[in-house]
Structures are given as structure tokens and as C-alpha cells.
UniProtKB/TrEMBL annotation:
Chain spans, region Disordered: 97-156
An example Gene Ontology molecular-function term: ubiquitin binding
Alphabetical UniProt keywords: Lipid droplet
Cross-referenced SUPFAM superfamilies: Thioredoxin-like, Ubiquitin-like
A GO cellular-component term linked to this record: lipid droplet
Classification lineage: Eukaryota, Metazoa, Chordata, Craniata, Vertebrata
Entry protein name: FAS-associated factor 2
Biased composition (Basic and acidic residues): 98-143
Amino acid sequence: MLFWACSTSKPEGYRVSQALRENTYPFLAMIMLKDRKMTVVGRLEGLIQPEDLINQLTFIMEANQTYLMSERLEREERNQTQVLRQQQDEAYLASLRADQEKDRKKREEQEQKRQEEEKVRQSVLAEERRRRTLEEEKERKSECLPPEPPLDDPDSVKIVFKLPNDTRVERRFLFSQSLTVIHDFLFSLKETPEKFQIVTNFPRRVLPCLPTEEQPNPPTLMEAGLSRSEVLFVQDLTDD
């Protein structure tokens, strides 16, 4: 650093002048960082020829070359250290962001897994409730069935039902009873599918056992054209 002074009229020039204690103008001081503090390493006062000025400046620089090199190296080392620290900070932040993103994805995966497990649990509970409700409905239907007529009842109809699992069930009903009674009886059985329809063998027809908008009151066994002895087929409609 060079300090050149030809007057001390400005406040900052005056303060520097007081610090350097120059006596003659023009005044030239060479200042450098030496031993970690700013030090005056050369002073030139009064008029001087250009060639002498250059020679003396060159001499001062060469005399302090060791300090200059040392300061340059320290400055470069500080810069490298600063760059390295900055790179380390950036790498740390990048690693931190990666870890945070990893944690976020892990939390999302855990939450998604929890929701899926909760969904499965709710589905199992719903299926259990549905089955309990179905069993309770079967029991209710079974309890509400009219008693089976005796063998010698002239109004009785013997029906053999063939279930989808190839089992056979036999029961007597009355001609005067609604086809709904047949459906309720089959529904109350554990072997019967949840949804089904009752079909005659020949001619093949589906018996209208349940109320509909067009037929709110299903026909009786006699109105359906059943004989005193029948074989009816139960068709599984659960997957339809």
C-alpha cells in the first residue's frame, strides 16, 4: 500500500498524517501487512527524481519480499480455507437436505403403510360386521319360519333342494304359503350362498320368490304351479 501526501487539508488525510508523523511534503509512505499488523516499511519525503523514486521503491519491495510472499501465501491459504469451509458448508447443507428428504419420504412411506394397514383393518372389521349381520339375519329368518306341515297334510308340498355345493335339502311346505317362505328357509341355511335364486328343472324358470315393484306380493306355491313333489335348484348369485 502506498500513501501519498502533499497536504493535510482533508480530515482523513490529517488523521493519517498524524499517524505517520511526516515532516516534509511531498511525502510517500509504503505500508504493508507485517507480523499481522499494518507497518510502514518505507518513507520518502521531499522532492525526488523519478528514477530514484523507482529505485527506492524497488529496493523497499525487494527488502520486504519475504514478508510479501509470506502474506500472499497466508492470504491464499485463508482464501483456500474459506473456500474449503464454504464447500464443506455446502456439502453439509446438501447432506442435511438429503437426510431431511429421506426422513420425509420415510415418514410418508410409514404414513402410507399405516393408512393401508388401517384400511385393511377396517375392511376386515367391515367384513366381520357383515358376516355377523348375515348370521343374525339367517337366525331371524329361521326363527320366523312357519312350522313344517305333517306328512299327511293334503295341502303339503315336498320339495328337494339341490344346493351349489351338491348337497340336498328336503322340506315340506303348504301350497297356500308364499314363495317367500321357500326363499327364507333356504336363506336360513348355512350351506346356502348369500345371494341366490331358485330355479325349476323342466321347464326351466326362475321362481319369483322376492317382492318387486311389479309384483310386491310373490305368488303362493300353488299359484307358481308347483306339484306335490318338486326338485328345485339353488343357483349362486354372489359373484354376479
